[in-house]
Amino acid sequence: MGWLELRAAIWGHGIKLGVGVDRAGRALDWILDSREVLLDSHHLRSAARLMWRIVRWHTPDLVGGLTMAADPLTFGVLLEADAEGHRVGGFSIRSAAKPHGLRKLVEGQAIRPGARVVLVDDVLSSGRSLARAHDIVTSAGAEVVAAVVLVDFQRPHASGFARLGLPVDSVYTLADLGLATRPPSLPGLARPVRRRPAGPSRRSAALHSAVHDSGVVVTAAASRRGRGRLSALRRDTGIELWRIELTARPTTPPALAGDGQLVVGLSDGRLVSVRTADGRLVWSRQVANGKVTGAPLATAGLVVVGGNHLVVALDPATGQTRWIAPMAGRVVGGVAPAGDSTVTTGSLRGDVALLEPASGRVLWTYQTGGPIRHVPSYSGGRLTVLCEDGYVYDFDVNIAPSANRQASGVSRPTS
Asked: Is 90 among the domain residues?
């Protein structure tokens, strides 16, 4: 379950319409009962995973908040941290010190001077709960570095915590849930949009092109150690939704493959497909002896990709190979659509090929005078190819070019 699925669960189980009253006893149009969502094992795990992906950027020593709203999230975040090999402590603040036993106000790990603390809560409404937790934590000498909540109500009067000037991140806002049309307009009270590093580190990441799907931006980054990762960010806020480690470097930009999936080629010759909602692996297939060299293309219900001297088509749902078309030269620029029923590619040997995507049948080929490193472009029945022999080649896709004549419209680029 990812960001979109948990949002649906909040609407299905947490949002109560036409019930509940406020502190003054007045009827409410709606109320959010987060406990009904979070005290479900499946929903809690999803919420904790999404929150941990935000919390971990602040490298906390301790995570916690006021009982009982913060408790499920605290426990879930600790488990997610441990699953990734991070040792993080947790605490829970009582409404009042226990009158017997150890008479503690704060249960769990001791809050020590100098500790980095991230406060968590189910919602940010008035900000009073976070402000009280902040005061108790800082009175013990610890440093509160941020607060992370499941839902930010984005209310201008949430000054109880805003006055402290600390960053507040959230998994959702009311606008995300369809309960608000715009964020607050008062200066200093809107939740900041935060930049997120998309690669392993700012120094070692080489970032490929990004692709976006339903408000989610996915980037592929390659590290210097021969590995890489895919990261998904919310397009409106930049908050990271998921991140997966790759065992090889991405060598192509990520490309949408339909049905909520994307594909990316790797340096070990594999093409992998993941879900854009949560980063879950759908399939992984070997398509080249060496790195995948051409950008994938989703067309005619297939994923078509170039790998060394091959063009390969796969079923986007299963990754099963549908057909393989051998190429005389190495394909580096990728595969591009050439009308409604054909695709085209070029190779380092200088070949231009037009293929039928449903079957992989090569309709025609033409050898130019030099390497082709860029994917050909198509418009109005014409195919344009840039070649390193210094010429631009133009083809009518419906007429197979003769091997003993020049392509129509050949011209040398002007300098």
From this structure: yes
For residue 191, give every residue at least 6 positions away whose Cβ sits within 8 Å of its Cβ, in sequence order, or none.
152, 154, 168, 169, 170, 173, 183, 237
Query: Are 137 and 238 found together in one domain?
Result: no
Same domain, 41 and 155: yes
Contact 362, 355 (CB under 8 A): yes
Q: Are residues 277 and 370 in the same domain?
A: yes
- For 155, the domain range is 3-173
Instruction: Indicate the range of 130-134, 183-187, 209-213, 232-236 predicted with least confidence.
Output: 183-187
pTM: 0.49
State the total domains in the chain: 2
pLDDT in tens, 331-345: 877 788 888 778 888
Q: Which residues have C-beta within 8 Å of that of residue 414, sequence separation ≥ 6? A: none
Q: CB-hemisphere CA count at 13 Å for 144?
A: 24
Counting beta carbons within 10 angstroms of the beta carbon of residue 45, is it exposed (0 to 12), middle (13 to 18) or buried (19 or more)? Answer: middle
